[in-house]
Every structure is written in structure tokens, then in C-alpha cells.
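Fold this: Phospholipid--sterol O-acyltransferase
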Amino acid sequence: LTFETALKLRGGPSLVLAHSLGNNVFRYFLEWLKLEIPPKQYIKWLDEHIHAYFAVGSPFLGATQSVKATLSGETSGLPVSEGTARLMFNSFGSSLWMMPFSKYCRADNKYWKHFSGGTRKDHHIHQCDEQEFRSNYSGWPTNLINIEIPSIRGLEAYPSVSEVAHNNFSSIECGLPTQLSFSAREISDGTFFKAIEDYDPESKRLLHLLEKSYHGDPVLNPLTPWDRPPIKNIFCIYGIDSKTEVGYYFAPSGKPYPDNWIITDVIYEIEGSLFSRSGNLVEGNPGPTSGDETVPYHSLSWCKNWLGPKVNITRAPQNIKKKQTLFPT
């Protein structure tokens, strides 16, 4: 209605400027529009109503810092504790919208179920290219999460409280902590949250939210790479060359929820290399440069896959760097 009113009042199409999470909102709008108007009118409507789309600082493949915000909290300069920031971040329904995901895996198109008569269950499948399993880290520079969890012998890898209660607790031996690593695909498909659901009271709720509001969304599962929108003019704008977090090491803190995890190390991308927080070089698949301090280069630059025959690439050096936050305004 806003676009159509603007067209009537101004007599021409609009410019769309989306920043950070706003790009995810605009993508959802484009998919929702397919269900609102006849397919033959879709491209015509876009041509008439949108002259250009400016994607500014877009987390096209997600943002690594959302993982930290979910597990241990990200204050982003706010005068609150990390535990409070974690509670706040996880209370937002949009937080999982910025979770990293693999560029090699795509979800089924949800809107086809409206026409095919398929069941809801048929539309949860992620289809991954062979490259997802041949390459490391889902195409990202490194594993996004490395986490230590308690290990209990003789039971399944991640026993629930009820399962433990049914066993002779005195015969259970506690083993050393086990370190598990998770790629972007294992975060977005819920594998990670399932792995820690017996050690973190937040994980079951987040897994439910992930499956209901993202994997099961009737319009779009946004945790899958998106193709170039069918808009005539697109401008992709993002910052580079800043030290950006791309991976984390977590361990139990010994404190109660929401402070039950502590970050023991951080992996950064900078100048085409990967370094730990202590300054040690880390093996992995770094990109040619680094991101904008909040979103890794790998995610910001995904729009380069949209390049067609008519494209101009401009690099504008700047001295002023402004950090964007994960919280939508």
C-alpha cells in the first residue's frame, strides 16, 4: 500500500534503502508479494513501483555475532550485563533471522505448498550441494561454534533429565568435557540447539522458534541463500577491512543461566587471515579481506553472486568507521 500510494502521489517508482536486518525484511516482502498478486503481474508490479534497491550492510548469509548474542550476550555498548543482554536478545523473534547459514544449502520453497497441496512436513527439507560435504565450514572461514559440554558414559550423547532419572544414577561415571564444533549449516538447521538442549534451558525454546517461525514459515525460510531480486537497479553497499569476529570457543562457566556459558577464545578475520584473540594464526578459509566489524566479508559480499553483464564496482576509501549493532532500530 505504501509503494502504491507513493506511485500515485509522486507519479513514479520508489527507491528502497535497506540497512542490516532491513534487507531480510525487504526480502520477505518480495516473497510475500508473490502470494498477493498474480504471477504474471509480479515483475510488472516491481518495475512500476521500485526503481532501485540499495542493500546497505546486509547480512546476506547471516551474522556471526548473533551466535555470541544468543549464547553469552552482546551488549553493543548498552549499560547492561551480558546475561541481561542475552535474555533481551533471545526475547526478540527476529534474533534467529540473523543466524549464519550455508551458501550450499537451500530450503524448499514454502509458497509452493499453497498450490501443490503438500503437507507441512514435506517442506522442512534442506537440499545441500555436494560441495557442502566436500568443503569445510559450510563455505565460511572456520567453524562458527566450538563448545565444551559435559560427557556422560553409558547413555546417549545428550541425555535428557528424564532419561538420567530412569537410570541408576550411582553407576554413572562422569567423563571429561567433550568439545564439539558446528558449522553454519548445523546452526541454521537446528543441529546445534539439539546438541546442547540438555545443558542450556534456552535451547529448546530457540529450537521451537527456529522450526516454527523459520523452517515452517508459509512464505519463506529465510535461512537459505537468496537469488538476485528481479529489480532493475540494485546497489550493494558494505564496509570491509575491519577486524571481524568469525568464530567462537565456548565452555561452561559454572554459573547459573543466563551466564552459564563463557567465551574462551574468539577467531577474527583481518587482512585476508584468521587470528585468535591471543594473536595466534588460525587455519581456515579466510576471504580476500575482512568484514565491517559486525558482519563477516563472506556474508556481506554474497551479492557479488548476483553480478550480471552490466555492473560497476566502486571502492571508496574512508577514514571514519562506524560500528553497526545487531539490534534493529
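Residues 21-36 form the longest helix (16 residues). The chain has one domain: 1-109+126-154+174-306.
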